[in-house]
Design brief:
Blueprint (H helix, E strand, L loop, with lengths): L4 E3 L7 E3 L1 H8 L26 H12 L2 E2 L5 E2 L5 H27 L4 E6 L9 H6 L6 H10 L8 H10 L3 E9 L3 H10 L11 E4 L16 H14 L2 E8 L2 H4 L7 E3 L5 E2 L2
Parallel strand pairs: 5-6, 5-8, 6-7, 8-9
Antiparallel strand pairs: 1-2, 2-10, 3-4
Amino acid sequence: MPRPARFRPALSRRARLGAATVATLVAGTAVFGIGQATAEHSVPRTDKEIPNLTQVQDKIKAYYGDTVTADGEHYASPRSNYAHQVRGIEAKARTYLSKALAQHGRTSKQTKPAIVLDIDDTTLLTYNYELQVGFHYTEESQDKYLAHTDMDPVFGMDRLVNWAHDKGAEVFFLTGRKEAQRAWSTRNLKNVGYGVPLDRRHVYLKDKEHPPAYLPCGATCTTIEYKSGTRKHIESLGYNIVANFGDQYSDLRGGAGDRTFKMPNPMYYLP
């Protein structure tokens, strides 16, 4: 069941709401405009090059259509700009997959088509958790949350995944969550409507204590190495990954996949 502008140390799996990250997230917008830190000056020379953290958080909430329940829980709105953007990506993915899966069935008898998806903010939405912890991720807070709470599905992704599976695509989940979170992750996916196989052959989590032999980097893999290496392993099992979905560019880089779909996520950054 992994990921605001502050880079956290390597022991955390995320880079959370810090100046360099936020600068990347809002680059090109009119929010901060002239004076924003650039690649040439990644260390701000003055305060004017640093986005205001409170304003960034407010814009993130507005983008997700922050909805607060009577008991103080925060949820994203299905009418938000975030939901609208997600649905646009899903529509493009469905159009592509309709053609790719049909063509694969006609032309390839050696491999079976597959799709690979990250979990956090690709198939399950972490927004409520992020607001609960004030965009301050820790392994302890994530464990406590996942053990007892189901995250909502990313708007429409459950329907897209189930549809692709019905059309003949094998579905694999590939997440940076740790192996100890497997039961919570698969419970969550099942409870919110992902009607696809969720066994160990279809859900890959990061196991630093016992890394798989197909990853030469072992317990020291970067996100790109871990995810691309696992995708290559999946393809070695006789699958052709026709589409790879992720909310981080590190979910998508490294090859092994015909096409990538980047899901929006302004809450954190994973290198």
